[in-house]
Amino acid sequence: MLFQFYEACIREWNQNNRIISTGVYAFPVELAAKVAVHTVNRFLQDNSDNFDLVEWGLFDSHTEAVYEAEVDRLYKMI
């Protein structure tokens, strides 16, 4: 379900330049990061001409570290 939410938000952002919130409402940040990073990655692969840059708006240094680690894991897999 979170995956579907992220996809819908990315489509909305793509049309209206809106921001997607990430894991602040007591949802486990590790799972939020995994879903967000992999969903954005898949969207970018399917829509490579739509974006030049993805910026994460994260709430604290712990969340930043978790997202950075997930991005690093993803790119080691690719």
From TrEMBL:
<dbReference type="InterPro" id="IPR043472">
    <property type="entry name" value="Macro_dom-like"/>
</dbReference>
<protein>
    <recommendedName>
        <fullName>Macro domain-containing protein</fullName>
    </recommendedName>
</protein>
